[in-house]
Structures are given as structure tokens and as C-alpha cells.
Amino acid sequence: MHTGDFYDYFDLLEDDEKKIVLRVREFMNQEVAPIADEAWTTARFPHQLIPKLAELDIAGLPYRGARSLLTGFVVLEMNRVDPSMGTFFGVHNGLAMGSIARLGSDEQQERWLPPMSDLTKIGAFALTEPKGGSDVAAGLRTTARRDGDSWVLNGAKRWIGNATFADLIVVWAKEETDGQVKGFVVEKGTPGFTATRIENKIALRTVQNADITLTGCRVPDANRLPGARTFRDTAAILRQTRGGVAWQAVGCMMGAYERALSYAKEREQFGRPVAGFQLVQDLLVRMLGNVTCSLGMVVRLAQLQDQGVYKDEHSAMAKAFCTARMREAVGWGREIMGGNGIVLDYGMGRFVADSEAIYSYEGTREINTLIVGRAITGLGAFV
User: Fold this and answer.
1) Residue 182 near residue 228 (C-beta atoms within 8 A)
2) How far apart are CA 110 and CA 119, in angstroms?
3) Cβ–Cβ contacts within 10 Å for residue 57, how many?
4) 312-337 and 231-266 helices cross at what angle (nearest 10)?
5) Cβ neighbour number for residue 74 with a 10 Å cutoff
6) What's the burial of 102, exposed, middle or buried (CB within 10 Å: 0-12/13-18/19+)?
7) Is 379 helix (H, G, I), strand (E, B) or coil?
8) Quick one: pLDDT at residue 136?
9) Where is the Acyl-CoA dehydrogenase/oxidase C-terminal domain (predicted)?
């Protein structure tokens, strides 16, 4: 079966980097693929896989000097098989670890990053709120009040991945005195913190998203991220992770394409495989075109990241474009499979459903479009 990497971008990796990516591919195919449908159907996270995932030694790669191209291909491989597992890892590795690595003190990094790297402590990232999504920069309602050598947090968060079982939750709150957004690490079991799993999702069902309530939640000043002084610091984390979501989208549509191609070769109608029909080949080539152009974009984004010259608009463009192309591609894959595309048995249903969440989170297409629009025109069109 031909892979979705039609232009062989994988060959841009160094030999030692390829070995890491291939280990991830083997893990996803052998350990995750066999249980992915059941985990998705039951909406239960496969905690038993965390020790095996830890053995890959891929958590924290960006903070150990790894190239962005390598970390991007790791993200792609995970989402190529299971976007839920890819999202779990993205929240832990990108959002939570990224916040501590970039905004935490030396002591905080020494305290938390090693156990997060070996996955003995799992992280979450709490920014979105029940009444605030796209307007979170100005509309953050969760508050932080200094009280002696502690901070008291009050408010609510929503759609927080990993929050039901995370050991460390990076919570963003607006300080009452200066009105600026600050970051705090709330440790599991802290009084005043509760996380309730969101039920009835139709996408990324394996991911344990939660509603969080903070009621007089007291956090020591030692858990305040000193590098998080304003929302600009929060945005710097999102700039990094939006690029990661673009890689997720490439992985998701690549997995869908490969399954559609395999199905089309095996499925017979009118006495021959449907892959031999012109209309089916047209859909397959459209899917592959979306994968290829999106992969080319995120590869270039990784190069800009490693050169230290990438900007908010670069990540925003990649996130907006790649997720839109993903949404098209998985729809065409479902079309190739007909009715079989809406059940899990044929490997397409999860990709179709999960793509809807990837399309929306970490900045909607509209918001990312406005970020790019402001960059190219010099005029802000935000409300």
C-alpha cells in the first residue's frame, strides 16, 4: 500500500530521527490500533499504555534540543492511527510541558519536567472557559488573588483535556490587582479544585475532557509560573502548539487516505475493485493532494521554527489551512466507503468524527484567519 507521504518528506529526517519516528509508528500500530475503537466507543482512556508510551522517550523532545521536524513527524505518526492518543500527548507534551519549560523557573523545571518526561506525572492545560473561547484573551473570568505566600483561584474552565486524571494542571487566571493573565500549576488533590468529565462527545471520545471548577483553590506562590506575566506569554505557548495541531491534521487525513486507498482496492462492485473506477480515483487523488500540500506546509513551518524566525501568523496559517484540508479529505474518504464509512469497523468513522474537534480547538479557522489577515494587511479585523 502506498503511504500518504507521496513526496517522501520523511527522507528529510536524519537517520537517528527516522529511528525514533519508526519506533512511534510501531507502537501506534501494535499497541494502540488494536484497542483504539473500543477505547473510543467506551470513552475510556487506555491508562495501561502510558508505561509503554514512556519507553519511547518522546515526551519533552522539543525541550531537549530535538528539531521541530522530528517532533512534527512524531505528532503525525500518532494521529495517523488515533487522533485521541495524539491529542492526549499534545496536551501533555505541548501545552502543559511547554508552559513549564518556557515560562517556569529553573526550580520548577527541575521539579516537574523530569517526571513529565517519563510520564509518571501527566499534565493538562486549562485556558478555555464555559463562556469564553475565541475571546479568551479579553474575556478571561477566572481570577487570582494574592494572599500571603499563596494565590487563591476562583472560576471555571471547560474542554480541558486530561484534566480528570492529570497530576499537574496549568491554570490561567487574571490577577485581580493588575488585570493581567498569570499562569499557575495546580497539583492533583488541591482543595477547591474539581474536574468533571464531559459526557456525550461525538469526537475524540477517548480524550478525557473535563469541566473544571476552582473555588477558593489555594496555590503556593512557588507554583506560579514567573514567566507568565500577561496574555502575550500565554499566546507564545499557543503559537508553538498551533503548529502541532497542523501536524495533527496532516496525520489524521493521512490515516484516512491510507484506509480509503486500502478499502478501494479490496471493495468490489460491478465485478471489479472500486479503485479501478475514475470517480473513486479522483477522490483518492484529491485526498492525497490535500495531504501532500499540507505536509509541505508544516515541514516548512518546522524549518521556520528551528530557525527562530516563525511568527504567530505562520502557525495560524498552518492551523487554519491544514485543518480545513483535513475536513475535506476525511469527508472524501467517507464517501469512498459509502455506508461503511460511518461505522468503526472499516477504520474511517473515528477520523471523520475526530477531525471535527481538531478543526475547532486551539483557535478556530475564523480566528486564525484574522491573525493572518492582520499580518498581511496591517489592519486588525477583530471585534
Assistant:
1) yes
2) 15
3) 14
4) 20
5) 27
6) middle
7) coil
8) 74
9) 236-376
The predicted pLDDT at position 137 comes to 67
pLDDT tens across 257-300, in order?
A: 999 999 999 999 999 999 999 999 999 999 999 999 999 999 99
Report the C-alpha gap between 364 and 196 in whole angstroms: 24
> What's the first-to-final CA gap in the chain, in angstroms?
48
Integer Cα distance of 209 and 201 in angstroms: 9
Task: Tell me the per-residue pLDDT of 127-165, one tens digit each, with 9 for 90 and over.
Answer: 999 987 777 767 799 999 999 999 999 999 999 999 999
Q: For the domain made up of 231-377, give the CATH fold.
A: Butyryl-CoA Dehydrogenase, subunit A; domain 3 (1.20.140)
pLDDT surpassing 90 at residue 3: no
Domain 123-223 fold:
Butyryl-CoA Dehydrogenase, subunit A; domain 2 (2.40.110)
Q: Is the pLDDT of residue 365 over 60?
A: yes
The whole-angstrom separation of Cα 374 and Cα 382 is 9
SS3 272: strand
Cell numbers standing for residue 317: 496559517
Residue whose grid cell is 508552559: 99
* pTM exceeding 0.85: yes
The structural domains of the chain, with segments of one domain joined by +, span 9-117, 123-223, 231-377
Looking up cell 507502537, which residue turns up?
Answer: 27
DSSP β-ladder status, 181-187 and 193-197: unpaired
Residue recorded with cell 479579553: 138
181-238: pLDDT as tens digits: 999 999 999 999 999 999 999 999 999 999 999 999 999 999 999 999 999 999 889 8
CA dihedral of 142, 219, 199, 137, whole degrees rounded to 10:
30
> CB-hemisphere CA count at 13 Å for 159?
16
Cα angle 210, 216, 219; round to 5? 85
Output the pLDDT for position 358.
Answer: 96
DSSP letter for 224, please: B
CA 176 to chain centroid, in Å, comes to 31
Q: How many other C-beta atoms can be found within 10 angstroms of the C-beta atom of residue 217?
A: 24
Q: Judge whether residue 1 has pLDDT over 60.
A: no
What is the CB-side half-sphere exposure of residue 246 using CA atoms within 13 A?
Answer: 32
